[in-house]
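User: I'm putting together a teaching handout on how sequence relates to shape, and I'd like one worked example. Could you take Intermembrane phospholipid transport system permease protein MlaE from Herbaspirillum aquaticum, show the sequence you're using, and then write out its predicted structure as tokens right after it?

Assistant: Happy to. First the sequence, then the structure tokens directly below it.
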Amino acid sequence: MIAGFVSGLGRSVREFVVGVGFAARMFINMLGASLGLLRRPRLITDQIHFIGNYSLVIITVSGLFVGFVLGLQGYYTLNKYGSEQALGLLVALSLTRELGPVVTALLFAGRAGTSLTAEIGLMKAGEQLSAMEMMAVNPLQRVVAPRFWAGVIAMPVLAAIFSAVGVLGGYVVGVLLIGVDDGAFWSQMQGGVDVWNDIANGVLKSIVFGIAVTFVALFQGYEAQPTPEGVARATTRTVVIASLTVLGLDFLLTALMFS
């Protein structure tokens, strides 16, 4: 029994190490293949439209309701200490530092990430990637790299839209519905939010999340079993692994940025 447990544990560790090594090699090869995209930028712009534009609705609606909730909860908390005038600052810092990049990345993983995994997985199942290799076309350069850079570019833009819409949602609830002073809402926000320490760090987080989530989605699709069941399992793994990666990276980045 103990021997079987040790054997299974060793096999799992070996498979994990092999998977990490293959992912690192694929990432390096993809970066090398990305140089050829300078001659064909249309491949990236098309994918930015596919990834970013189709995720815009869920990002905007989610940001609005998150702003509503922040406005309500923030007012109830600050009102206990007579500091409800700082509601705008609380909403802005919560969104730009944490909720904007993190929630956007989680929604991106569920919407665009699964779409990328399913698309690449179905291309593999239909032997389209093998056909490209037979025609001397590098699938990493033609298929994977454009989608990777599109995800990296689209993530910060979507996070900025999420934060902006969330601030408007907090304004609607806090100022228009509850009655917080309009001038205090915006002046506290303007005086307390720092461009480099708050906004720039949030943008950096969203870029890191974009790299992680997009690569996880593409890797899972590229390595999926060429069967319907294999593509379905790869799509599920994309959501789980990408979500846990985002939360883990958020902790590390927050500790480094705001320690």
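A couple of points you could highlight for students: The helical segments are 2-33, 42-79, 87-125, 128-134, 139-178, 182-192, 195-222, 228-258. Residues 2-258 form one domain.
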